[in-house]
Amino acid sequence: MSDEATHILVVDDDDRLRDLLQRYLGECGFRVSTASSAAEARVALSGLDFDLLVLDLMMPGESGLELTQSIRGDNTVKALPILLLTAMGEAQDRIAGLEVGADDYLAKPFEPRELVLRIEAILRRGGPKQEEIAVATFGTCSFHMERGELTRDGTAVRLTSGEMEMLRLFARNPGVTVGRAELLAQADAGNVRAVDVQITRLRRKIEEDPKEPRHLCTVWGQGYVFWLD
User: Fold this and answer.
1) Domain total in the chain
2) Percent above pLDDT 90 for the chain
3) Strands 82-86 and 104-107
């Protein structure tokens, strides 16, 4: 394995999963180190440089959420991209991870290939999230990022939880093509067809002409891209 390969630190207290991810990610060309706890992760972070952290949210002792928050407050490692692994299904739990600075999350159980796609997506975006704007404005719409509230021409527009999560993802990454696999997990859609249905519904709520979208556009064969004004 080349020293120039992307170096990933996998942190999970589940020995079997940790070993599986180390082996699979290694086969995909990544350089992989592991830690079984936040304490071990801190030791690794103090002595080695990493390109991305795959971190279990729920661990004994210091949780992944707490470690993420600590990393984002540490100037020496604050720019490190973080992907959280979580068994939690509630949207609020996932949002909490994003709010403290995680770049993405993946709910357990998951397909290892999806993890690789998400890692590649984060690295394509240039790593960590930029400072997040409070309100995204586009056309006659305004979207409050934290509250997930959409207004159009000053009138509140109701969003489903899936549409809200989808719009958050797009608004955080304007101009970046987001694949269907990423949207599938982010919006809690049941399948790829459901993602397309949610896109159609979201366009009706934000576009002047949903058939000729200006903001939420299709990138054929890849996914969708969102443009602010």
Assistant:
1) 2
2) 47
3) parallel
